[in-house]
Specification:
About 75% of the residues lie in helices and about 0% in strands. With about 100 residues, it is an all-alpha fold. The model has no long low-confidence stretch (mean pLDDT about 80). Helix 1 runs antiparallel to helix 2.
């Protein structure tokens, strides 16, 4: 007699790998935006001699850009999860025009 108590071990390991991969992608996205902001700010400060304002402004802009990117990705993942849970795999977009 075979008992099924839950999802297979193979499915769980794939889910864990997918979660780790997505978390790494999100962290890397934020880090790249912040690092780019810092380097651009330092470059602006060295050219225009406005230290530390270029660094401060561009670092802030990099952080905002990074978090905005994370927000957009999180919304996309939530939308995909809702579609997977409800079984609606059709992509219906409202074009705003008459039917």
């Amino acid at each position: 007699m075979v008992h099924k108590t839950g999802p297979s071990k193979e499915k769980n390991s794939f889910s864990l790998l997918a979660i780790v991969t997505e978390a790494g992608t999100l962290g890397l996205t934020l880090a790249i935006c912040l690092i780019a902001g810092v380097y651009i700010g330092r470059y602006i400060d060295s050219i225009m001699e406005t230290s530390p304002w270029g660094l401060i402004c561009c670092s802030f802009l990099g952080a905002v850009t990074g978090f905005w990117s994370l927000y957009k990705k999180a919304l996309r993942y939530m939308k995909e999860d809702n579609q997977n849970r409800h079984g609606s795999h059709t992509n219906q977009k409202d074009t705003g025009g008459p039917d």
